[in-house]
Amino acid sequence: MSSKERLADGMRLEKSGKLEAAAALYRKIVDKDPLSQEAVGRLLVVYRKLKSYREELAVINRVLAAYQEQDKDRQRKWVREHSKAAAAGTAVFQQLGGGASVSSFAADPVVGTLVRRKEVVERRIPGKKGGERGGKAKAGQRKGGAEDRKTARERMNQENRERRGAEMAARKEEKARRREEAARRKEETARRKAEAAQRKVEAAQRKVEAAEKKAMEADARKAEQEERRPSLFVITLSYRVPLKKIDAAMAAHVAFLNKQYKKGTLMASGRQVPRVGGIVVAKGKDRGAVERMMQADPLVKKGLATIEVVEFKPSRTAKELARWVARTVR
What we know:
By secondary structure, the chain is of the alpha+beta class. It has helices spanning about 5-15, 20-30, 35-50, 55-80, 85-95, 110-125, 135-230, 245-250, 250-265, 285-295, 300, 320-325, and strands at about 230-240, 265-270, 275-285, 305-310. Strands 2-3-1-4 form a 4-stranded antiparallel beta sheet, with helices on both faces. A hairpin with a 5-residue loop joins strand 2 (about 265-270) and strand 3 (about 275-285). The model is unreliable at about 100 (pLDDT under 50).
């Protein structure tokens, strides 16, 4: 049978006047769970009706012991979870003239009710505190009871002060923790901003480096293209003898030119105006090769003319000339 079922059965028995049977059921619940307020309350009422004050006192003592043990457990748990606050609270309690414990046992309304009932029950039990042992004994007991209540109130006030001190210390610790957390978040935010700024700077630097590298590569390609582009040569022939001697050697000169045209070396040739010499536009591997080629010209070879070679790199050419320049010199 569950405690809930026993409680219901006990209440039915109590209503029907079967107080002993009801007390037996209530007692089973309280034996199993002394903190069951409903079962404890009904059991104390039944014992009161039965005038079983000793049994009622035994139940009260047992329940108070259970509440006290529960309070100790809570206190130990709180101290474990709030070690800093507990240490700070202890210092506060000691300054106030109290102990080092944090307890709300006396402040519990249920405990207060049981303590007051205990005083009443003890006065009704012969030989117990507050029992009927004459007017003088009653007066002494009333005085003792008043002193006990005063002591209980002082203890309760002390425990309340201790509890408030512990709560203040806990709030102070919580505020400090929140301040530390806020400072940590602020520091973390600043760190992330600094890292983001650093990444931005690094990205900009990489972008500049990439642009510089691209420009350098473009310059290198351009230089390489310039280097690969063949030179053209403008050759000026200046006659050193009368035209009669030049004409006599012209057939050999033309044969020389035709041979060079077949090799792809020459693009143009012709007389100067006035006729003081000739102009030849040629292509060669280098200046030395062109000069050696022109030294084989009969006019130059026989000393009838001199040459002057001007080398240049064409940056722009007509389409026809571009194809000619691109052909390899044989």
